[in-house]
């Protein structure tokens, strides 16, 4: 059994400004993920013939237009996932009661907007702890997909946060413990600590390659270009689940009002047509290798 799941974190553009310690985005950019990105994502999935798992932030759905877009995706057969109520990058630093509120209220908001209560969870910034896993278990969340055991990503994130501080800005992003880098790369039930196997919540880790554990996520694939994206995909073949995690910004570019991010995010400089070429090259490579595309919920049911 070889499964591939494509999930998308629907982080709106203000979250990227918070990462880089910037002000507020322009009105054109503020809701670009919902206003333009979701239509492009649905078209991408339809053209390749597979379902998406969309991780939504509950507070974004207070805007009727955004709620309607997510409901449209649900009606098209895509899975809804919980990305918390407010996308607090410091979720792991909060008191247990507030962690539970962020997770439960996020699920409530998604259910109100779409009629489907999410069964899966992804933490903001891939940062999670044993306490968050304990809350997930208490709330009977069926699976988590937050653990990212990727040394190159961890090093790049640490360097970026250091650079932001040197420039006198304050990032909202939080660096996870380096022990996450020893976590399994294949689906597992978490133990205590969560980077070891146990009998807890089912974890579907974010995808890395064999060996070097290079990142195989939307940012790396769209920056790589089609040929290198195929190479990264081939380096994942053999895994029982290839868990491709994208962001809504992966189908946007500077023409979507993201000019202010150009000095800070190289992927914004890549034309969206080129990004989509790289993503389709990845999907085609995995399909040619015999992978069946499913939602993360279907993957959890098959592998759990």
From TrEMBL:
It comes from the Bacteria. Residues 18-294 form the NodB homology domain. It holds the Pfam family Polysacc_deac_1. Transmembrane segments: none annotated. This is Polysaccharide deacetylase family protein. The lineage of its organism: Bacteria, Pseudomonadati, Myxococcota, Myxococcia, Myxococcales.
């Amino acid at each position: 059994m070889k499964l591939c799941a494509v999930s998308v974190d629907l982080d709106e553009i203000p979250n990227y400004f918070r990462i880089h310690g910037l002000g507020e985005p322009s009105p054109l950019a503020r809701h670009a993920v919902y206003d333009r990105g979701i239509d492009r994502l649905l078209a991408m999935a339809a053209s390749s013939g597979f379902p998406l798992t969309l991780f939504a932030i509950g507070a974004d759905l207070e805007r009727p237009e955004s709620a309607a877009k997510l409901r449209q995706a649900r009606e098209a057969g895509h899975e809804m996932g919980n990305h918390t109520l407010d996308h607090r990058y410091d979720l792991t630093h909060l008191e247990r009661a507030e962690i539970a509120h962020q997770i439960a209220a996020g699920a409530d908001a998604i259910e109100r907007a779409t009629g489907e209560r999410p069964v899966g969870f992804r933490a903001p910034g891939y940062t999670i702890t044993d306490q968050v896993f304990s809350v997930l278990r208490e709330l009977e969340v069926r699976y988590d997909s937050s653990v990212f055991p990727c040394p190159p990503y961890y090093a790049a994130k640490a360097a970026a946060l250091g650079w932001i501080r040197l420039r006198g800005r304050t990032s909202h992003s939080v660096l996870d413990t380096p022990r996450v880098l020893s976590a399994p790369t294949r689906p597992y039930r978490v133990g205590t600590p969560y980077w070891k196997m146990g009998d807890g919540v089912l974890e579907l880790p974010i995808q890395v390659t064999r060996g070097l554990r290079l990142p195989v996520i939307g940012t790396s694939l769209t920056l790589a270009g089609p040929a290198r994206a195929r190479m990264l995909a081939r380096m994942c073949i053999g895994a029982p689940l290839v868990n491709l995690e994208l962001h809504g910004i992966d189908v946007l570019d500077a023409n979507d009002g993201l000019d202010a991010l150009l000095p800070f995010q190289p992927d914004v400089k890549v034309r969206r047509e080129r990004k989509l070429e790289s993503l389709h090259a990845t999907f085609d490579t995995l399909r040619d290798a015999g992978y069946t595309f499913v939602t993360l919920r279907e993957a959890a049911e098959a592998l759990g």
